[in-house]
Amino acid sequence: MNIQVLIIEDEPKTAQSLKQGLEEYHYEVDLAYDGHFGLRLAKEKKYDIIVTDIILPYLNGIEICKELRGLGIQTPIIILTALGNTDDVVMGFDAGADDYLTKPFELKELLVRIRALLKRSSNAPLPPNILRTKEIEVNLDTRLVLRNGKRIELTPKEFALLVFFIRHRGKVVSKSDIADKVWDIDFDTGTNVIEVYVNYLRKKIDKDFEKKLIHTQFGLGYVFKDDEQ
Ligand code: CA
Fold it and tell me: The whole model's pTM is what?
């Protein structure tokens, strides 16, 4: 199978010429002209490399990197930056980008970077599909959940909710975030389904433990905390 590349670039000419150029080298290329669509593709399809411009409509390249890394998606990312914008590069690396190219660049430079990243990522051991906080371990393949080594049985929805909390640990998540991302529904203030499920989850992961992991932030939502202390 050919190497799959996602290019997120809002200048149609640049995007098209990169696509054509890479296709000549037998890469398979998808194009996205804005940040939202780019992020959606990156989440839905498994790419070998993502090349993203920084300044994009709706969502910039740095935000895309952050979002993907936050979701545990480790696809190598090359960011495209305008000449002299060192701050962008630093922010890009902080957000989880692997490499950058300064515009304008030649196709052969991009090819060199892509090959180097592919080599690096194919040599790297496969990341275990495990999410870990100080006390919780979640295996995303086997769905085994442990707290301090003790096995915890969760229903699929509780499991999805826990994974969502862990991926956003330390941050306040609102009920509407949960409704949207875990239930894929619009939040209706008339329903208490989120509270009900958060309570189910608490009973299983927190009830028997002195330290509580799920905290209510009144009027805001919840925050999952399992600090290194
Ligand atoms: Ca741009």
Answer: 0.56
